[in-house]
Amino acid sequence: MTLLQPGEKRSLSDFISGPRLRVQVTHDLSQADVSVFGLNGDRQLRDDRYFVFYNQLRSPSGEVSLQLDGARATFELDLQALPAGVERLMFVISHDDSPMSRLGQLRLSVQDPQGSERATVLLGGSQFTAERAVMIAELYRHGGGWRLGSVAQGFQGGLDSLLGYFGGQVASEATPASTPAPAGAPPPTTSPAAPSPAASAAQTGQGSSVAEFLRRSAEQDRPGDVFELESSKMLEVKVRGRVWSKLGAMVAYRGQLEFKRSSTLGDLVGGLRSGGGMGALLGAAMRIGSGEMGPLVSIQGQGVCYLADQGKEIAIIRLQGDTLNVNGNDLLAFEDTVTHEITMQRSVAGMVSGGLFSVQVRGHGMVAILSHGKPLTLRVTPNEPVFTDPNATIAWSEHLRPDLRVSQDLRSMLGRGGGETLQMAFQGDGFVVVQPYEESPAMENVPRH
């Protein structure tokens, strides 16, 4: 049995051998509704008969059927029988009143026709806040077959918002449309506006989580988008112009692509411009030389490139006008539409360590970050600052300005103390993400004469 992480996509043939399968959703949120949308290639519901829910338990020819039993919803699927106009099945849960933060646990189980579980997607209430609808997972056509993707994207507006987002008719009561359009009908001249996703960390001031990052990316992740997770440790990048990646991250590619190593001069000037002075400039040069922040590579042309880094886990973040600070060593790739700037931390500890390097990414577009193992997101509040090991710190929210501190404990200097010599101190309102692994301290790699 395979557990899919948020944002991960796998070939359905890895689990199920034929076109028939069962998808079962169990949860503990009272009076919540589970349903499925049959969407076209533009992620639009062109035939309301392929919206299968409590008031419409079957698609026109029974390709999709739903059986409800309390907090368990079971879908019987025959993918081969679906018309060509239905290219994606999106499984969702919604509630009229209660937010998904009250959800204890949700389990989506992909099973063979006999009911043997082959793959799962797990969600919990701690991943959500005020959202009243969540896209759990999806099945979609890809390369002549089908793929399974974990989505975990929430919307505050509930089922009506999702129905409108997918182009369905929002009525006063949820009933099937009386005159449905054929599955292959052309799209309307105007698309309905998408509902606002759950507020970001910058908007709420309450911090965010890695799961929220992945939910935002999964909402827009579709065939044709630039980034897609082939597995939790492999990123597929569809290059149609230019993208940026970490040096040495390319493992394979096809098509006409050109790889150009960017100059580090701009990074050094950026460090100086950020207010670090000459000490920050020297620190930046030392960090680049020691390998903590390798130069970026521009990938240009037309083709597909596969990126990975030392078997680390990959998370896709879709920036929607947001700003995020990422440890330089943990930034894998980003779209050309995303602006970036090298930033430095000013402190005596910064001089000792050669200046702590991070990359601030902002704007609109996809960003891929790295983590050794499953990351942990810690909330930061004005009354509860968070202290982390710099070598285990991956990212932090926009408005946090961490200080790098040196322990004054002589035992720590002699290696006999219980704490770390260098610590990052986060104070304010936001979040910080750490990994269960310490990268090699950058100064260990600096040549000594």
UniProtKB/TrEMBL annotation:
The UniProt entry, under CDD domains, shows: TerD_like
Pfam families, per the entry: AIM24, TerD
Q: Where is this region: Disordered?
A: 173-210
List all Low complexity biased stretches.
191-209
Task: Give residue ranges for domain TerD.
Answer: 27-164
State the name under which the record lists this protein.
TerD domain-containing protein
Q: Which organism is it from?
A: Deinococcus seoulensis
